[in-house]
Amino acid sequence: MRALKSAILSAAFALGLAGAAQAAEGVHIPSQDWSHDGVFGTIDKPSAQRGFQVYKEVCAACHSMHLVPIRTLAGIGFTEDELKALAAGYEVQAGPNDEGEMFMRPGIPADRFPSPFPNDNAARASNGGALPPDLSLMAKARVGGENYIYAFLTGFEDPPEGVNLMPGMNYNKYFPGHQVGMPNVLVPDGVTYSDGTAATVEQQAHDVSVFLTFAAEPHLDARKQMGVKVILFLIVLAGLMYAVKRRLWSTIH
């Protein structure tokens, strides 16, 4: 019975923030306004910085982001000195040393964000058998992307009358089935933004969604800029080719 409960919690936690495409069917996810939407959209760097603060102070207690190097944060405005100071606050495993043993050292910007747990079994043991999903690619890998993340984080509420939750589950109106192992982790003023922005639940959810979008695709802005340049080049090239064609064929009747 305990093993069954553990399996249920593990599945629910893993799917909670990372609902699969099939599970997303039948649940309407509202669309939000994002500065990075559209061809000319760009990542809102102040929002992404606030979102990193939410991740660091709230989400990182359970969720890893092991595919993202710390130096990636330079893309949202962190200076070299800030990155060094941030990295030094982490302890990362290194080695082996001359004696063949692994050891811990302060992090450097080239390191990836360390997991809050030494291994998956430790993560499960600390979360009732559930394995919290890694957030590195969450905004790209899941149906709805940042809209799903925002909706999920703001969708926790008391269950409607007549709805009975399984033990260890929480009600979320945007999660298919509405029962999820992940608890509501965002509370008003749960973080204190250094720029004075009011840390409402909605603001925290918006900011961390922007940050996870950046983390999943840190070259998003550069890719869009290159795309615009390529399109402009092709338009100019097409005009030149048309002009050359007209000139070459102008003497032929």
- Report Rg: 23 Å
**Whole-number mean pLDDT:** 87
State the end-to-end distance.
Answer: 88 Å
Using the alpha-carbon principal axes, give the shape: globular
Strand order of the largest sheet: 1-2
Number of distinct beta strands: 4
**Helix and strand pattern:** HHHHEEHHHEEHH
- Overall SS class: mainly alpha
What fraction of the residues are assigned to beta strands by DSSP? Answer: under 5%
What's the gist of this structure?
The protein has helices at residues 2-16, 21-24, 45-57, 80-88, 120-126, 138-141, 145-154, 201-216, 220-249; strands at residues 91-94, 103-106, 170-171, 179-180.
Structure notes:
It contains 9 helices and 4 strands. The chain is mainly α and 253 residues long. Among the domains are: 69-111, no CATH class; 221-253. The strands form 2 sheets. It has a two-stranded antiparallel sheet. A two-stranded antiparallel sheet has the order 3-4. α3 packs across α8 (201-216) and α7 (145-154) runs antiparallel to α8.
Secondary structure layout plus pairing:
Layout: H1 2-16, H2 21-24, H3 45-57, H4 80-88, E1 91-94, E2 103-106, H5 120-126, H6 138-141, H7 145-154, E3 170-171, E4 179-180, H8 201-216, H9 220-249
Antiparallel strand pairs: 1-2, 3-4
Helix pairs in contact: 3-8, 7-8
